[in-house]
Amino acid sequence: MRKSLVIATQPGPVGFILLFFLLSLLGQTVVGQQNVQFTYVGPPKILPIATADSYPEGATINLICTVSGGQRKGLALNWEKDGRELNDESLRYSNEYGSISIEKTGTDISILRISNATHEDSGRYTCKAKNPIGEDSTSAQLVINVELKWNKVPADTEIGLNKDVTIECDATSQPNPIIQWTKLPSSTSKGLNDSNKSIVVSQGKYLKITRAQHKDSGLYECTAHNGADSLRRVIQLTVRGKL
């Protein structure tokens, strides 16, 4: 009757040296009479998670966590996002993680799937592996690019002389856009004076004018850009009233 002999050893060069030494002690006769099985013992080892630099909004993303070494008996795989555990309860009842699902393939592979990704899915995802001997983890940073679009489109505005006015211009994207206001040159101005040049009058989404004067009338341009795309809108500001 043939018997099975299970030999447990550690992964790596030291484990192979010990294995060779053990087989030398067993001898050819012993090995020939038994089914020899080899298994590694030790803490789990996880392969790095492969990701792209960024993903477009609406994409389906698969993060694959693979255990490549260590003892499989008693192995558990878990996911976190930004330090918060993603378990069955949080995925089922939290609207924050509505696009995330987790699928396990065998004992040593776990796939985290994000469907119809949005900016809220950006973050740091960590896979943790733990067995009775130890644990290991690996992380991946996800960036979801969101198309540049208007949140608040400015419109032509009329105000009275010496009045205060605030005009809002806002856009959103990922990465975050830079917004600024510029006063455009007057079509009636001549020569190289200030009125014939574009002047940046505000950094940010608000154009604020205090105690408006007739010289503040004119065309103002709001621009939003994020390095990959840009938006622009020109409005007319009119100051009415007698001095």
TrEMBL record:
Its main location: membrane. It is found in: Membrane. Gene3D superfamilies: Immunoglobulins (2.60.40.10). GO terms for biological process: homophilic cell adhesion via plasma membrane adhesion molecules; synapse organization. One of its GO terms (molecular function) is axon guidance receptor activity. It holds the Pfam family I-set. InterPro entries: Cell_Adh-Cytoskel_Orgn, Ig-like_dom, Ig-like_dom_sf, Ig-like_fold, Ig_I-set, Ig_sub, Ig_sub2. It comes from the Eukaryota. Residues 44-145, 162-238 form the Ig-like domain. It is a single-pass membrane protein. Residues 1-32 form the signal peptide. Keywords: Cell adhesion, Disulfide bond, Immunoglobulin domain, Membrane, Repeat, Signal, Transmembrane, Transmembrane helix. SUPFAM superfamilies: Immunoglobulin. GO terms for cellular component: axon; neuronal cell body; plasma membrane. This is Hemicentin-2. The lineage of its organism: Eukaryota, Metazoa, Ecdysozoa, Arthropoda, Chelicerata.
